[in-house]
Amino acid sequence: MSSDHDRYHHRRTLTLEQRAARCPNPAGRRLLEIISRKRTNLCISLDMTDSAEILSTARLVAPYVCLFKTHVDIVADFSQDFVAELTAIAEEHDVLIFEDRKFADIGNTARLQYEAGMYRIAEWSHFTNAHVVSGPGVVDGLRGAAERLGRGLLLLAEMSSAGSLVTGPVTELAVELAAREPALITGLIAGGALLPDTADVITMSPGVSLAGEDSPTARPAAGDSFGQQYVTPRRAIMDRGTDVVIVGRAIIGAADPVAAAKLHQTAAWQAYEQSVAHLQQA
Amino acid sequence: MSSDHDRYHHRRTLTLEQRAARCPNPAGRRLLEIISRKRTNLCISLDMTDSAEILSTARLVAPYVCLFKTHVDIVADFSQDFVAELTAIAEEHDVLIFEDRKFADIGNTARLQYEAGMYRIAEWSHFTNAHVVSGPGVVDGLRGAAERLGRGLLLLAEMSSAGSLVTGPVTELAVELAAREPALITGLIAGGALLPDTADVITMSPGVSLAGEDSPTARPAAGDSFGQQYVTPRRAIMDRGTDVVIVGRAIIGAADPVAAAKLHQTAAWQAYEQSVAHLQQA
Protein backbone atom coordinates (compact mmCIF):
# COMPACT_ATOMS: atom_id res chain seq x y z
CA MET A 1 0.00 0.00 0.00
CA SER A 2 1.41 3.32 -1.00
CA SER A 3 1.72 6.48 1.03
CA ASP A 4 -0.77 8.04 -1.36
CA HIS A 5 -3.48 5.85 0.07
CA ASP A 6 -2.54 6.84 3.60
CA ARG A 7 -3.30 10.42 2.72
CA TYR A 8 -6.98 9.66 2.22
CA HIS A 9 -7.22 7.56 5.34
CA HIS A 10 -9.63 9.75 7.22
CA ARG A 11 -12.12 10.22 4.41
CA ARG A 12 -12.12 6.63 3.29
CA THR A 13 -12.40 5.10 6.74
CA LEU A 14 -15.75 6.84 6.90
CA THR A 15 -18.37 5.06 4.83
CA LEU A 16 -20.24 7.04 2.20
CA GLU A 17 -23.32 6.87 4.45
CA GLN A 18 -21.31 8.35 7.31
CA ARG A 19 -20.00 11.10 5.07
CA ALA A 20 -23.53 11.81 3.81
CA ALA A 21 -24.91 12.00 7.33
CA ARG A 22 -22.39 14.63 8.36
CA CYS A 23 -22.28 16.54 5.05
CA PRO A 24 -23.39 20.12 5.81
CA ASN A 25 -24.39 20.92 2.21
CA PRO A 26 -27.80 19.55 1.21
CA ALA A 27 -26.87 18.85 -2.43
CA GLY A 28 -23.63 17.20 -1.36
CA ARG A 29 -25.50 15.02 1.11
CA ARG A 30 -27.87 13.82 -1.60
CA LEU A 31 -24.97 13.09 -3.94
CA LEU A 32 -23.11 10.96 -1.38
CA GLU A 33 -26.33 9.03 -0.70
CA ILE A 34 -26.79 8.38 -4.42
CA ILE A 35 -23.17 7.29 -4.87
CA SER A 36 -23.62 4.81 -2.04
CA ARG A 37 -27.06 3.58 -3.15
CA LYS A 38 -26.25 3.19 -6.85
CA ARG A 39 -22.61 2.19 -6.39
CA THR A 40 -21.45 4.70 -8.93
CA ASN A 41 -19.02 7.59 -8.56
CA LEU A 42 -19.25 8.39 -12.27
CA CYS A 43 -20.42 11.77 -13.60
CA ILE A 44 -21.27 11.95 -17.30
CA SER A 45 -20.49 15.11 -19.28
CA LEU A 46 -23.42 15.60 -21.63
CA ASP A 47 -21.50 17.93 -23.93
CA MET A 48 -23.75 17.80 -26.96
CA THR A 49 -25.33 20.72 -28.79
CA ASP A 50 -28.71 19.15 -29.55
CA SER A 51 -31.25 18.75 -26.76
CA ALA A 52 -32.79 15.55 -28.15
CA GLU A 53 -29.35 13.95 -28.31
CA ILE A 54 -28.56 15.00 -24.75
CA LEU A 55 -31.86 13.62 -23.48
CA SER A 56 -31.53 10.31 -25.30
CA THR A 57 -27.95 9.85 -24.07
CA ALA A 58 -28.98 10.84 -20.55
CA ARG A 59 -31.71 8.17 -20.61
CA LEU A 60 -29.25 5.53 -21.81
CA VAL A 61 -26.49 6.17 -19.30
CA ALA A 62 -28.59 7.27 -16.29
CA PRO A 63 -28.50 3.86 -14.53
CA TYR A 64 -24.69 3.99 -14.39
CA VAL A 65 -24.05 7.53 -13.18
CA CYS A 66 -24.63 9.68 -10.10
CA LEU A 67 -24.47 13.01 -11.88
CA PHE A 68 -25.33 14.61 -15.25
CA LYS A 69 -22.93 17.42 -16.11
CA THR A 70 -24.26 19.98 -18.59
CA HIS A 71 -23.09 23.03 -20.51
CA VAL A 72 -26.49 24.50 -21.32
CA ASP A 73 -24.94 27.36 -23.26
CA ILE A 74 -23.83 25.01 -26.02
CA VAL A 75 -27.37 23.65 -26.53
CA ALA A 76 -28.67 25.14 -29.79
CA ASP A 77 -32.35 24.47 -29.03
CA PHE A 78 -32.32 25.08 -25.28
CA SER A 79 -35.70 25.55 -23.60
CA GLN A 80 -37.16 25.18 -20.13
CA ASP A 81 -38.94 22.10 -21.52
CA PHE A 82 -35.54 20.55 -22.10
CA VAL A 83 -34.63 21.28 -18.48
CA ALA A 84 -37.91 19.77 -17.30
CA GLU A 85 -37.26 16.60 -19.27
CA LEU A 86 -33.68 16.27 -18.09
CA THR A 87 -34.90 16.78 -14.54
CA ALA A 88 -37.52 14.06 -15.00
CA ILE A 89 -34.89 11.60 -16.25
CA ALA A 90 -32.63 12.52 -13.36
CA GLU A 91 -35.39 12.00 -10.80
CA GLU A 92 -36.48 8.71 -12.29
CA HIS A 93 -32.92 7.35 -12.21
CA ASP A 94 -31.64 8.86 -8.96
CA VAL A 95 -29.20 11.25 -10.63
CA LEU A 96 -28.38 14.89 -9.81
CA ILE A 97 -27.52 17.70 -12.25
CA PHE A 98 -24.38 19.83 -12.36
CA GLU A 99 -24.31 22.81 -14.72
CA ASP A 100 -20.61 23.31 -15.40
CA ARG A 101 -20.89 27.07 -15.85
CA LYS A 102 -17.47 28.04 -14.49
CA PHE A 103 -18.65 31.45 -13.28
CA ALA A 104 -15.72 33.82 -13.53
CA ASP A 105 -17.09 37.34 -13.25
CA ILE A 106 -17.50 39.83 -10.44
CA GLY A 107 -20.07 38.88 -7.81
CA ASN A 108 -22.93 41.04 -9.01
CA THR A 109 -22.69 39.71 -12.58
CA ALA A 110 -22.29 36.09 -11.44
CA ARG A 111 -25.42 36.52 -9.33
CA LEU A 112 -27.45 37.55 -12.39
CA GLN A 113 -25.89 34.84 -14.56
CA TYR A 114 -26.84 32.21 -11.97
CA GLU A 115 -30.37 33.38 -11.18
CA ALA A 116 -31.57 35.18 -14.30
CA GLY A 117 -31.36 34.96 -18.07
CA MET A 118 -32.81 32.25 -20.28
CA TYR A 119 -31.23 29.50 -18.23
CA ARG A 120 -32.18 30.29 -14.61
CA ILE A 121 -29.47 27.78 -13.63
CA ALA A 122 -30.12 28.08 -9.91
CA GLU A 123 -33.67 26.81 -10.32
CA TRP A 124 -32.79 23.38 -11.70
CA SER A 125 -29.11 22.60 -11.30
CA HIS A 126 -28.20 20.93 -8.00
CA PHE A 127 -24.59 21.98 -8.46
CA THR A 128 -22.71 24.66 -10.30
CA ASN A 129 -19.10 25.76 -10.20
CA ALA A 130 -17.02 28.92 -10.15
CA HIS A 131 -13.48 30.05 -10.70
CA VAL A 132 -12.03 32.07 -7.85
CA VAL A 133 -9.77 34.27 -10.02
CA SER A 134 -12.19 37.19 -9.79
CA GLY A 135 -11.82 37.05 -5.99
CA PRO A 136 -14.09 35.73 -3.24
CA GLY A 137 -16.92 38.09 -4.29
CA VAL A 138 -18.07 35.53 -6.87
CA VAL A 139 -19.10 33.20 -4.01
CA ASP A 140 -21.08 36.02 -2.41
CA GLY A 141 -22.82 36.62 -5.72
CA LEU A 142 -23.92 32.98 -5.94
CA ARG A 143 -24.69 32.61 -2.23
CA GLY A 144 -28.23 34.01 -2.12
CA ALA A 145 -29.86 31.63 -4.59
CA ALA A 146 -27.66 28.68 -3.60
CA GLU A 147 -28.63 28.94 0.07
CA ARG A 148 -32.29 29.60 -0.67
CA LEU A 149 -32.57 26.58 -2.96
CA GLY A 150 -30.18 24.21 -1.17
CA ARG A 151 -27.72 24.11 -4.06
CA GLY A 152 -24.06 23.16 -3.92
CA LEU A 153 -21.15 25.19 -5.24
CA LEU A 154 -17.91 23.67 -6.47
CA LEU A 155 -14.81 25.80 -6.80
CA LEU A 156 -12.22 25.19 -9.50
CA ALA A 157 -9.03 24.30 -7.69
CA GLU A 158 -7.26 22.55 -10.58
CA MET A 159 -7.95 22.04 -14.29
CA SER A 160 -7.04 19.21 -16.64
CA SER A 161 -6.02 21.44 -19.55
CA ALA A 162 -2.38 21.98 -20.58
CA GLY A 163 -0.76 25.08 -19.10
CA SER A 164 -3.56 25.63 -16.58
CA LEU A 165 -2.92 28.51 -14.17
CA VAL A 166 -5.49 27.21 -11.72
CA THR A 167 -2.49 26.54 -9.49
CA GLY A 168 -0.61 28.19 -6.62
CA PRO A 169 -2.56 31.05 -5.05
CA VAL A 170 -5.68 30.28 -7.14
CA THR A 171 -5.76 26.70 -5.86
CA GLU A 172 -5.05 27.93 -2.34
CA LEU A 173 -7.96 30.38 -2.35
CA ALA A 174 -10.38 27.73 -3.66
CA VAL A 175 -9.25 25.28 -0.97
CA GLU A 176 -9.44 27.94 1.73
CA LEU A 177 -12.97 29.00 0.77
CA ALA A 178 -14.16 25.37 0.56
CA ALA A 179 -12.71 24.54 3.96
CA ARG A 180 -14.25 27.66 5.47
CA GLU A 181 -17.82 27.23 4.19
CA PRO A 182 -18.73 23.57 3.70
CA ALA A 183 -22.45 24.32 4.11
CA LEU A 184 -22.38 26.40 0.90
CA ILE A 185 -19.38 25.00 -0.96
CA THR A 186 -19.83 21.28 -1.58
CA GLY A 187 -16.29 20.86 -2.69
CA LEU A 188 -13.66 21.27 -5.35
CA ILE A 189 -13.04 20.55 -9.00
CA ALA A 190 -9.48 19.21 -8.97
CA GLY A 191 -7.29 16.37 -10.15
CA GLY A 192 -7.49 14.79 -6.72
CA ALA A 193 -8.22 15.40 -3.05
CA LEU A 194 -6.52 18.60 -1.93
CA LEU A 195 -7.93 18.42 1.59
CA PRO A 196 -7.37 14.72 2.24
CA ASP A 197 -8.18 14.98 5.92
CA THR A 198 -11.50 16.68 5.36
CA ALA A 199 -14.43 14.35 4.77
CA ASP A 200 -16.78 17.29 4.17
CA VAL A 201 -15.20 18.39 0.90
CA ILE A 202 -16.32 16.44 -2.17
CA THR A 203 -13.78 16.39 -4.99
CA MET A 204 -14.76 15.92 -8.63
CA SER A 205 -12.14 15.36 -11.33
CA PRO A 206 -12.51 16.16 -15.04
CA GLY A 207 -10.24 14.83 -17.77
CA VAL A 208 -10.88 11.17 -16.91
CA SER A 209 -11.02 8.35 -19.46
CA LEU A 210 -10.12 4.66 -19.57
CA ALA A 211 -7.82 5.76 -22.40
CA GLY A 212 -6.04 8.21 -20.07
CA GLU A 213 -2.31 8.77 -20.24
CA ASP A 214 -1.63 6.20 -17.52
CA SER A 215 -3.64 3.51 -19.32
CA PRO A 216 -1.69 0.51 -20.66
CA THR A 217 -3.46 1.02 -23.99
CA ALA A 218 -3.16 4.79 -24.20
CA ARG A 219 -2.15 6.44 -27.42
CA PRO A 220 1.09 8.45 -27.20
CA ALA A 221 -0.82 11.69 -26.59
CA ALA A 222 -4.10 11.01 -24.80
CA GLY A 223 -5.84 14.36 -25.17
CA ASP A 224 -7.36 16.64 -27.77
CA SER A 225 -6.02 19.31 -30.08
CA PHE A 226 -7.05 22.06 -27.61
CA GLY A 227 -4.85 20.93 -24.71
CA GLN A 228 -7.21 18.63 -22.79
CA GLN A 229 -5.34 15.84 -20.95
CA TYR A 230 -6.72 12.57 -19.55
CA VAL A 231 -5.96 10.12 -16.72
CA THR A 232 -7.72 6.83 -15.92
CA PRO A 233 -10.40 6.46 -13.23
CA ARG A 234 -7.97 4.30 -11.26
CA ARG A 235 -5.34 7.04 -11.12
CA ALA A 236 -7.88 9.76 -10.26
CA ILE A 237 -9.52 7.71 -7.49
CA MET A 238 -6.83 5.45 -6.02
CA ASP A 239 -3.70 7.52 -6.52
CA ARG A 240 -5.20 10.99 -6.23
CA GLY A 241 -8.13 10.36 -3.91
CA THR A 242 -10.93 12.04 -5.85
CA ASP A 243 -14.57 11.25 -5.06
CA VAL A 244 -16.27 11.61 -8.45
CA VAL A 245 -14.76 11.15 -11.91
CA ILE A 246 -16.16 13.22 -14.76
CA VAL A 247 -16.11 11.40 -18.09
CA GLY A 248 -17.27 12.94 -21.34
CA ARG A 249 -15.96 12.05 -24.76
CA ALA A 250 -14.86 8.53 -23.72
CA ILE A 251 -18.56 7.72 -23.23
CA ILE A 252 -20.57 10.05 -25.44
CA GLY A 253 -18.08 9.65 -28.30
CA ALA A 254 -18.01 5.85 -28.03
CA ALA A 255 -19.65 3.61 -30.62
CA ASP A 256 -21.65 2.09 -27.75
CA PRO A 257 -22.16 4.74 -25.04
CA VAL A 258 -23.98 2.33 -22.71
CA ALA A 259 -21.13 -0.18 -22.81
CA ALA A 260 -18.62 2.65 -22.29
CA ALA A 261 -20.63 4.01 -19.36
CA LYS A 262 -20.76 0.56 -17.73
CA LEU A 263 -17.01 0.10 -18.20
CA HIS A 264 -16.25 3.48 -16.67
CA GLN A 265 -18.69 2.93 -13.82
CA THR A 266 -17.13 -0.43 -13.01
CA ALA A 267 -13.56 0.85 -13.22
CA ALA A 268 -14.32 3.89 -11.07
CA TRP A 269 -16.26 1.96 -8.45
CA GLN A 270 -13.65 -0.80 -8.24
CA ALA A 271 -10.95 1.83 -7.77
CA TYR A 272 -12.94 3.28 -4.89
CA GLU A 273 -13.50 -0.14 -3.28
CA GLN A 274 -9.87 -1.14 -3.69
CA SER A 275 -8.81 2.10 -2.11
CA VAL A 276 -11.05 1.40 0.89
CA ALA A 277 -9.81 -2.21 1.08
CA HIS A 278 -6.22 -1.04 1.11
CA LEU A 279 -6.99 1.17 4.05
CA GLN A 280 -8.67 -1.60 5.98
CA GLN A 281 -5.55 -3.74 5.58
CA ALA A 282 -3.41 -0.91 6.95
CA MET B 1 4.12 65.92 -16.51
CA SER B 2 4.53 62.76 -14.53
CA SER B 3 6.58 59.70 -15.30
CA ASP B 4 3.28 57.83 -15.71
CA HIS B 5 2.57 59.82 -18.82
CA ASP B 6 6.03 59.07 -20.17
CA ARG B 7 5.22 55.39 -20.07
CA TYR B 8 2.51 55.78 -22.70
CA HIS B 9 4.61 57.98 -24.93
CA HIS B 10 4.84 55.68 -27.86
CA ARG B 11 1.14 54.85 -28.04
CA ARG B 12 -0.08 58.38 -27.52
CA THR B 13 2.32 60.03 -29.93
CA LEU B 14 0.59 57.99 -32.57
CA THR B 15 -2.80 59.42 -33.48
CA LEU B 16 -5.81 57.13 -33.25
CA GLU B 17 -5.90 57.12 -37.06
CA GLN B 18 -2.28 55.97 -37.16
CA ARG B 19 -2.99 53.26 -34.61
CA ALA B 20 -6.04 52.16 -36.60
CA ALA B 21 -4.09 52.01 -39.85
CA ARG B 22 -1.50 49.66 -38.34
CA CYS B 23 -3.86 47.62 -36.16
CA PRO B 24 -3.57 43.99 -37.32
CA ASN B 25 -6.96 42.93 -35.87
CA PRO B 26 -9.94 43.92 -38.04
CA ALA B 27 -12.32 44.53 -35.11
CA GLY B 28 -9.66 46.54 -33.29
CA ARG B 29 -9.07 48.66 -36.38
CA ARG B 30 -12.78 49.47 -36.66
CA LEU B 31 -12.93 50.35 -32.97
CA LEU B 32 -10.00 52.78 -33.16
CA GLU B 33 -11.59 54.42 -36.20
CA ILE B 34 -14.87 54.85 -34.33
CA ILE B 35 -13.14 56.26 -31.24
CA SER B 36 -11.42 58.83 -33.43
CA ARG B 37 -14.49 59.66 -35.55
CA LYS B 38 -16.97 59.94 -32.67
CA ARG B 39 -14.49 61.33 -30.14
CA THR B 40 -15.55 58.82 -27.54
CA ASN B 41 -13.52 56.18 -25.70
CA LEU B 42 -16.51 55.18 -23.59
CA CYS B 43 -17.95 51.65 -23.53
CA ILE B 44 -21.36 51.23 -21.93
CA SER B 45 -22.15 48.06 -19.97
CA LEU B 46 -25.75 47.17 -20.82
CA ASP B 47 -26.16 44.92 -17.79
CA MET B 48 -29.94 44.69 -17.72
CA THR B 49 -32.05 41.55 -17.70
CA ASP B 50 -34.87 42.75 -19.98
CA SER B 51 -34.23 43.02 -23.72
CA ALA B 52 -36.57 46.00 -24.25
CA GLU B 53 -34.76 47.92 -21.51
CA ILE B 54 -31.37 47.10 -23.01
CA LEU B 55 -32.49 48.23 -26.47
CA SER B 56 -34.05 51.46 -25.24
CA THR B 57 -30.96 52.33 -23.19
CA ALA B 58 -28.71 51.41 -26.11
CA ARG B 59 -30.66 53.81 -28.36
CA LEU B 60 -30.38 56.61 -25.81
CA VAL B 61 -26.66 56.36 -25.13
CA ALA B 62 -25.45 55.21 -28.57
CA PRO B 63 -24.34 58.68 -29.74
CA TYR B 64 -21.90 58.94 -26.81
CA VAL B 65 -20.22 55.54 -26.87
CA CYS B 66 -17.93 53.49 -29.09
CA LEU B 67 -18.91 50.10 -27.72
CA PHE B 68 -21.94 48.27 -26.27
CA LYS B 69 -20.89 45.67 -23.71
CA THR B 70 -23.41 42.88 -23.13
CA HIS B 71 -23.93 39.87 -20.87
CA VAL B 72 -26.48 38.03 -22.99
CA ASP B 73 -26.80 35.25 -20.46
CA ILE B 74 -28.54 37.56 -18.00
CA VAL B 75 -31.24 38.55 -20.54
CA ALA B 76 -34.44 36.79 -19.52
CA ASP B 77 -36.12 37.13 -22.93
CA PHE B 78 -33.08 36.71 -25.17
CA SER B 79 -33.75 35.99 -28.84
CA GLN B 80 -31.93 36.37 -32.13
CA ASP B 81 -34.40 39.20 -32.85
CA PHE B 82 -32.94 41.05 -29.87
CA VAL B 83 -29.47 40.57 -31.33
CA ALA B 84 -30.66 41.82 -34.72
CA GLU B 85 -32.14 44.95 -33.16
CA LEU B 86 -29.07 45.66 -31.05
CA THR B 87 -26.95 45.22 -34.18
CA ALA B 88 -29.16 47.65 -36.09
CA ILE B 89 -28.82 50.28 -33.37
CA ALA B 90 -25.06 49.72 -33.30
CA GLU B 91 -24.75 50.10 -37.07
CA GLU B 92 -26.90 53.20 -37.17
CA HIS B 93 -24.83 54.91 -34.48
CA ASP B 94 -21.33 53.66 -35.36
CA VAL B 95 -20.96 51.45 -32.31
CA LEU B 96 -19.45 47.96 -31.99
CA ILE B 97 -20.60 45.13 -29.69
CA PHE B 98 -18.59 43.31 -27.03
CA GLU B 99 -20.11 40.24 -25.39
CA ASP B 100 -18.36 40.08 -22.03
CA ARG B 101 -18.52 36.28 -21.80
CA LYS B 102 -15.27 35.73 -19.88
CA PHE B 103 -14.69 32.28 -21.38
CA ALA B 104 -12.90 30.20 -18.79
CA ASP B 105 -13.16 26.57 -19.87
CA ILE B 106 -10.95 24.19 -21.80
CA GLY B 107 -10.51 25.01 -25.48
CA ASN B 108 -12.98 22.53 -26.91
CA THR B 109 -15.79 23.70 -24.62
CA ALA B 110 -15.01 27.39 -25.16
CA ARG B 111 -15.19 26.76 -28.91
CA LEU B 112 -18.73 25.39 -28.60
CA GLN B 113 -19.77 28.14 -26.16
CA TYR B 114 -18.55 30.79 -28.62
CA GLU B 115 -19.95 29.32 -31.84
CA ALA B 116 -22.97 27.27 -30.79
CA GLY B 117 -25.84 27.34 -28.31
CA MET B 118 -28.74 29.78 -28.23
CA TYR B 119 -26.43 32.76 -28.41
CA ARG B 120 -24.06 32.05 -31.31
CA ILE B 121 -21.89 34.84 -29.90
CA ALA B 122 -19.30 34.67 -32.66
CA GLU B 123 -21.91 35.56 -35.27
CA TRP B 124 -22.79 38.99 -33.92
CA SER B 125 -20.33 40.16 -31.29
CA HIS B 126 -17.34 42.04 -32.67
CA PHE B 127 -15.40 41.35 -29.48
CA THR B 128 -15.45 38.79 -26.75
CA ASN B 129 -13.09 38.03 -23.90
CA ALA B 130 -11.49 35.11 -22.12
CA HIS B 131 -9.68 34.31 -18.93
CA VAL B 132 -6.35 32.58 -19.42
CA VAL B 133 -6.48 30.51 -16.21
CA SER B 134 -7.49 27.38 -18.12
CA GLY B 135 -4.27 27.74 -20.16
CA PRO B 136 -3.60 28.97 -23.70
CA GLY B 137 -5.90 26.29 -25.19
CA VAL B 138 -8.88 28.60 -24.64
CA VAL B 139 -7.47 30.94 -27.31
CA ASP B 140 -7.13 28.02 -29.72
CA GLY B 141 -10.75 27.10 -29.04
CA LEU B 142 -11.93 30.60 -29.97
CA ARG B 143 -9.51 31.06 -32.84
CA GLY B 144 -11.42 29.33 -35.64
CA ALA B 145 -14.59 31.43 -35.54
CA ALA B 146 -12.76 34.62 -34.55
CA GLU B 147 -10.42 34.45 -37.54
CA ARG B 148 -13.14 33.39 -39.96
CA LEU B 149 -15.44 36.26 -38.93
CA GLY B 150 -12.80 38.93 -38.25
CA ARG B 151 -13.61 39.13 -34.54
CA GLY B 152 -11.38 40.45 -31.78
CA LEU B 153 -10.46 38.64 -28.57
CA LEU B 154 -9.62 40.42 -25.34
CA LEU B 155 -7.81 38.58 -22.57
CA LEU B 156 -8.44 39.31 -18.92
CA ALA B 157 -5.17 40.59 -17.52
CA GLU B 158 -6.56 42.38 -14.45
CA MET B 159 -9.97 42.64 -12.75
CA SER B 160 -11.54 45.43 -10.73
CA SER B 161 -13.01 43.17 -8.04
CA ALA B 162 -11.57 42.95 -4.51
CA GLY B 163 -9.11 40.10 -3.98
CA SER B 164 -8.77 39.39 -7.71
CA LEU B 165 -6.19 36.72 -8.53
CA VAL B 166 -5.93 37.88 -12.12
CA THR B 167 -2.42 38.95 -11.13
CA GLY B 168 1.15 37.63 -11.34
CA PRO B 169 1.50 34.67 -13.70
CA VAL B 170 -2.12 35.03 -14.92
CA THR B 171 -1.51 38.63 -15.96
CA GLU B 172 1.83 37.65 -17.48
CA LEU B 173 0.31 34.92 -19.64
CA ALA B 174 -2.45 37.26 -20.89
CA VAL B 175 0.12 39.93 -21.76
CA GLU B 176 2.40 37.39 -23.43
CA LEU B 177 -0.39 35.96 -25.59
CA ALA B 178 -1.63 39.43 -26.58
CA ALA B 179 1.85 40.57 -27.53
CA ARG B 180 2.43 37.39 -29.53
CA GLU B 181 -0.78 37.41 -31.60
CA PRO B 182 -2.10 40.92 -32.19
CA ALA B 183 -3.94 39.84 -35.34
CA LEU B 184 -6.25 37.62 -33.24
CA ILE B 185 -6.04 39.22 -29.80
CA THR B 186 -7.16 42.82 -29.94
CA GLY B 187 -5.94 43.55 -26.49
CA LEU B 188 -6.41 43.27 -22.77
CA ILE B 189 -8.99 43.87 -20.08
CA ALA B 190 -6.96 45.55 -17.35
CA GLY B 191 -6.84 48.54 -15.05
CA GLY B 192 -4.39 50.26 -17.36
CA ALA B 193 -1.87 49.76 -20.14
CA LEU B 194 0.33 46.78 -19.33
CA LEU B 195 2.25 46.98 -22.60
CA PRO B 196 2.76 50.73 -22.73
CA ASP B 197 5.19 50.57 -25.62
CA THR B 198 2.91 48.54 -27.82
CA ALA B 199 0.45 50.56 -29.88
CA ASP B 200 -1.16 47.39 -31.23
CA VAL B 201 -2.68 46.28 -27.94
CA ILE B 202 -5.98 47.97 -27.06
CA THR B 203 -6.68 48.13 -23.32
CA MET B 204 -10.20 48.32 -21.89
CA SER B 205 -10.81 49.00 -18.21
CA PRO B 206 -13.86 48.00 -16.18
CA GLY B 207 -14.78 49.42 -12.79
CA VAL B 208 -14.85 53.03 -13.99
CA SER B 209 -17.22 55.70 -12.69
CA LEU B 210 -17.14 59.45 -12.09
CA ALA B 211 -17.90 58.45 -8.49
CA GLY B 212 -14.73 56.30 -8.40
CA GLU B 213 -12.57 56.08 -5.31
CA ASP B 214 -10.24 58.86 -6.55
CA SER B 215 -13.14 61.24 -7.18
CA PRO B 216 -13.31 64.34 -4.95
CA THR B 217 -16.97 63.51 -4.30
CA ALA B 218 -16.57 59.78 -3.76
CA ARG B 219 -18.32 58.08 -0.90
CA PRO B 220 -15.97 56.40 1.59
CA ALA B 221 -16.38 53.01 -0.12
CA ALA B 222 -17.00 53.47 -3.84
CA GLY B 223 -18.04 49.97 -4.82
CA ASP B 224 -20.80 47.42 -4.33
CA SER B 225 -21.56 44.77 -1.74
CA PHE B 226 -19.96 42.07 -3.92
CA GLY B 227 -16.46 43.55 -4.00
CA GLN B 228 -16.57 45.70 -7.15
CA GLN B 229 -14.25 48.73 -6.94
CA TYR B 230 -14.27 51.91 -9.03
CA VAL B 231 -11.83 54.55 -10.29
CA THR B 232 -12.58 57.69 -12.30
CA PRO B 233 -12.10 57.92 -16.09
CA ARG B 234 -9.28 60.39 -15.47
CA ARG B 235 -7.32 57.94 -13.35
CA ALA B 236 -7.89 55.04 -15.74
CA ILE B 237 -6.90 57.04 -18.84
CA MET B 238 -4.32 59.61 -17.73
CA ASP B 239 -2.65 57.83 -14.83
CA ARG B 240 -2.98 54.27 -16.03
CA GLY B 241 -2.99 54.71 -19.80
CA THR B 242 -6.05 52.69 -20.75
CA ASP B 243 -7.71 53.15 -24.14
CA VAL B 244 -11.39 52.46 -23.41
CA VAL B 245 -13.25 52.90 -20.13
CA ILE B 246 -16.14 50.57 -19.39
CA VAL B 247 -18.93 52.22 -17.41
CA GLY B 248 -22.05 50.43 -16.26
CA ARG B 249 -24.06 51.27 -13.19
CA ALA B 250 -22.91 54.94 -13.12
CA ILE B 251 -24.84 55.40 -16.38
CA ILE B 252 -27.58 52.78 -16.52
CA GLY B 253 -28.37 53.28 -12.84
CA ALA B 254 -28.47 57.08 -13.13
CA ALA B 255 -31.73 59.03 -12.93
CA ASP B 256 -30.83 60.48 -16.34
CA PRO B 257 -28.73 57.93 -18.27
CA VAL B 258 -28.22 60.26 -21.25
CA ALA B 259 -26.81 63.02 -19.05
CA ALA B 260 -24.62 60.49 -17.25
CA ALA B 261 -23.38 59.07 -20.56
CA LYS B 262 -22.50 62.56 -21.82
CA LEU B 263 -20.65 63.37 -18.59
CA HIS B 264 -18.65 60.15 -18.75
CA GLN B 265 -17.92 60.59 -22.45
CA THR B 266 -16.67 64.13 -21.88
CA ALA B 267 -14.56 63.19 -18.87
CA ALA B 268 -13.01 60.19 -20.63
CA TRP B 269 -12.31 62.05 -23.86
CA GLN B 270 -10.83 65.07 -22.06
CA ALA B 271 -8.58 62.75 -20.07
CA TYR B 272 -7.36 61.25 -23.35
CA GLU B 273 -6.77 64.65 -24.95
CA GLN B 274 -4.98 65.97 -21.87
CA SER B 275 -2.78 62.94 -21.84
CA VAL B 276 -1.84 63.57 -25.47
CA ALA B 277 -1.29 67.28 -24.79
CA HIS B 278 1.03 66.47 -21.91
CA LEU B 279 3.10 64.33 -24.23
CA GLN B 280 3.33 67.02 -26.87
CA GLN B 281 4.71 69.41 -24.27
CA ALA B 282 7.37 66.88 -23.33
UniProtKB/TrEMBL annotation, chains A, B:
Keywords attached to this entry: Decarboxylase, Lyase, Pyrimidine biosynthesis
Residues noted as binding substrate in the record, renumbered to the chain: 47, 69, 160, 228, 248-249
The reaction(s) this protein catalyses: orotidine 5'-phosphate + H(+) = UMP + CO2
Biological pathway: Pyrimidine metabolism; UMP biosynthesis via de novo pathway; UMP from orotate: step 2/2
SMART domains assigned: OMPdecase
An example Gene Ontology molecular-function term: orotate phosphoribosyltransferase activity
Domain Orotidine 5'-phosphate decarboxylase: 41-263
E.C. number(s) listed in UniProt: 4.1.1.23
PROSITE patterns, A to Z: OMPDECASE
The keyword Lyase is annotated on this UniProt entry: yes
Active-site residues annotated for this sequence: 100 (for ompdecase activity), 102 (for ompdecase activity), 105 (for ompdecase activity)
Domain of life: Eukaryota
GO biological process entries: 'de novo' pyrimidine nucleobase biosynthetic process; 'de novo' UMP biosynthetic process
Family named by the database record: Belongs to the OMP decarboxylase family.
Name of this protein: Orotidine 5'-phosphate decarboxylase
Organism: Fonticula alba (Slime mold)
